[in-house]
Amino acid sequence: MSIRAAGSSISPVARATIAPVDESLALEAADLSLTHGLAMADSLVYATARRFGATLVTGGADFQGLADAVVVR
Predict the structure, then answer these.
(1) How does pLDDT run across 7-63, given as a tens digit for each residue?
(2) Domain count, the chain
(3) Which residues pair with 71 in a beta bridge?
């Protein structure tokens, strides 16, 4: 891989937002996990997207039918 290709791979990561998992996010994720039967890691991802007002785009079928989640195949 060339340096240019490596740089273009890293560039989107550098623009990413790092979201801290605080107590309120963890509690929301736990509630979503229980309510929707999501694994805890999935519920953390979903709760984080909701907190930021983002639409979650995923290949995970577990998110099918959830508000603000788009499942792609």
Answers:
(1) 666 666 677 788 999 999 999 999 999 999 999 999 999 999 999 999 999 999 999
(2) 1
(3) 58
Residue 45 placed within a domain = yes
Pair type for strands 56-58 and 69-71:
parallel
Residue 46: closest CA among 27, 66, 16: 66
Dihedral sign (CA 62, 65, 29, 15): positive
Q: Is residue 39 part of a domain?
A: yes
10 found inside a domain: no
SS (H, E, C) the chain: CCHHHHHHHHHHHHCCCCCCCCHHHHHHHHHHHHHHCCCHHHHHHHHHHHHCCCCEEECCHHHCCCCCEEECC
